[in-house]
Design goal:
Layout (H helix, E strand, L loop, with lengths): L9 E5 L10 E10 L8 E3 L6 E3 L5 E5 L17 H4 L7 E4 L5 E3 L9 E9 L17
Antiparallel strand pairs: 1-2, 2-8, 3-7, 4-8, 5-6, 5-8
Length: 139
C-alpha cells in the first residue's frame, strides 16, 4: 500500500528554548497540536538520543496549552521536590507514565492543543551529578 499524499497529523513544538544545564533535573515542554486529526489513543515515542535522559523518578505531566502555562518549568526550578513532581490538586493537569519509552495521550487531549512536560537531565561525564558547571573550588 502506498500513500499518495502524506501529510502531518500533529505539530510538535518545543515549549522552552533555553539551554539545558548539565546534570540538573529540568522540565522540557513539548506543545502538541493535532492537525485536523484526532489523537485519541495516540502514543508518543520518546527517544532523547545521547546526552539526555528522561528522569524516571518523576511523573510526566500533560495539560491544556495556553499562552501562559502554569507549569513547574516556568518557575525556573532546577531541583524538583516530590511535592512539585506530584501536583495531585493542580487543575487540568494529567499525570502520565513512561512505559517502554512511550507515553499514551489521555482522551481529553485528542482534539486540543496541549503541553507535555517531561523531566529530563542533560548528562555530562565531566561534571559530577548535582555540581554546578560554573562552581569554583577553593584551594
Amino acid at each position: 500500500m502506498q500513500v499518495s499524499k502524506p501529510r502531518a497529523l500533529v505539530d510538535l513544538t518545543p515549549a522552552i528554548s533555553s539551554a539545558l544545564l548539565i546534570n540538573e533535573v529540568q522540565w522540557f515542554g513539548i506543545i502538541v497540536r493535532p492537525i485536523d486529526y484526532s489523537l485519541k489513543g495516540g502514543v508518543l515515542h520518546i527517544d532523547t538520543g545521547p546526552g539526555l535522559e528522561v528522569v524516571g523518578s518523576h511523573v510526566i505531566e500533560m495539560e491544556r496549552y495556553t499562552t501562559t502555562p502554569r507549569s513547574i518549568a516556568d518557575r525556573g526550578d532546577s531541583e524538583l521536590t516530590n511535592q512539585d513532581a506530584l501536583p495531585s490538586n493542580s487543575e487540568g493537569v494529567t499525570q502520565l507514565t513512561l512505559q517502554d519509552s512511550k507515553v499514551q495521550f489521555p482522551d481529553w487531549a485528542s482534539n486540543v492543543t496541549s503541553a507535555l512536560w517531561i523531566p529530563v537531565r542533560a548528562v555530562g561525564d565531566e561534571i559530577s551529578r548535582g555540581m554546578k558547571s560554573n562552581s569554583h573550588q577553593s584551594g
